[in-house]
Write a structure and sequence with these properties.
mainly alpha; 65% helix
Length: 153
Amino acid sequence: MAGVGRQEITVSRQSNVFNFWSKINNIDEAKDFSREGFVAALICAGITLALVLLSFAGVSLLPGFNAFALMDVALFAGLAWGIYRYSRICAVLALALYVAEQANNVMSFNTYNAVMAVLFIIFFVKSIRGTFAYHRFKAANADPVSSGNLTSG
């Protein structure tokens, strides 16, 4: 009866902004890292869509949000889907697009939110690291030598 009523508790590593350069030890941690870029891309698409819709309604909170900005919504939504599917290319492109848009905002409108920009850059960098690690771990698990799937010819 010593084990009755006891439950084994496992503590999972919570991903946060402060461990963005910690070692990724397994495929689950790689998935956690990549998911942060997925969420960041969705947030970028959602905020941009909200600002575009507000500008259509006559409320202009920030300059430069018009129908052309719907292309950004589509780009970030597509990149989010790619990151969700662990695409390394989409993770890199999401970071590049975000940095390019932040640079454009600074040069064109003199608007800049440094805290938000740094956080999103960290999330996209984590996503890049996560997607690359995911494929590295997946390739290591599919290695024919380690899985015994060698065929002799």
